[in-house]
From TrEMBL:
The chain crosses the membrane at residues 12-33, 72-93, 105-125, 154-178, 203-227, 259-281. Pfam families: BPD_transp_1. It is found in: Cell membrane. Its main location: membrane. The lineage of its organism: Bacteria, Bacillati, Bacillota, Bacilli, Bacillales. Residues 68-280 form the ABC transmembrane type-1 domain. Keywords: Cell membrane, Membrane, Sugar transport, Transmembrane, Transmembrane helix, Transport. One of its GO terms (biological process) is transmembrane transport. InterPro entries: ABC_transporter_permease (IPR051393), MetI-like (IPR000515), MetI-like_sf (IPR035906). CDD domains: TM_PBP2 (cd06261). This is Permease component of ABC-type sugar transporter. One of its GO terms (cellular component) is plasma membrane. It comes from Thermobacillus composti (strain DSM 18247 / JCM 13945 / KWC4). It is a multi-pass membrane protein. It comes from the Bacteria.
Amino acid sequence: MPSILNRLRPYAMVAPALVVFSLFYLYPIGYMIHLSFHEWNFISPVKTYVGLNNYREMLADDTFLQVLRNSALYTVMTVLLATGTALPLAIWLNRKSAFHAFVQGAIFSPHIISLVSISLLWSWLMDPEYGLLNGLLHLFGISPLKWLNDPGTALVSLVIVAVWKSLGYNTLVFIAGLQSIPPELLEAAALDRSKPWTTFRRLILPMLSPTLFFLVIINLIGSFQVFETIAIMTQGGPINSTNTLVYYIYEYGFRFFKIGYASAAGVILLIIVGTLTLIYFRLLSRRVHYR
């Protein structure tokens, strides 16, 4: 009897977490998949089974294909810039001084500000007539940009906001990774007169691979889930140039009341994010070096 209780004790301890996970994660996913095979206006209690019609209609829609392209382009630019700028900044800030500590706190502060506030701030900064950014461009004799009002620059403008928001968090995580590198390894490289680039490529980057692996996954998932900045700053425009998957799902679900269609788009988003994460794990997990 005691042995049975000992075997059941771990399951009893994780049972509350499993119940919460099933209730707030597994059940909504299952219900979304169920709704994707139905037609429902969110008001009527009647759901009409339509099979794969929602998926066929969605994949035949040129707007949805453009949304996929926008999402992919936004994700690639955001992940590359957010991690690519944070790493050299972290290497520069990895020093013990009051100035570097102040800069660390300054660049981290956007991370704790809500996206709503940040979106409103950047909407003013990028205003084509009264914005601060065009005022700075005018001082340097550069023609002002339309930023959020031009299909050619609107998506890039949102990427700038996303990178500015996440830069501080990524930088501090990289600094934590740098400080976990044993100093004797760096001292040995200095004694061997290793060049800075060689030390970075052969020593620092492999030791930072778990940190880099983590940040890429976090930024990848977060980029595909972008919603607040688009809803406040562009509403998917101009000419659908900034419409991404989550905002597309919101529009069809809560503006057009096509819940089945929106659920089908949600399933596609789930498949894309899950597939990309799995591929990333399969391809790069072996290159991650843990001490």
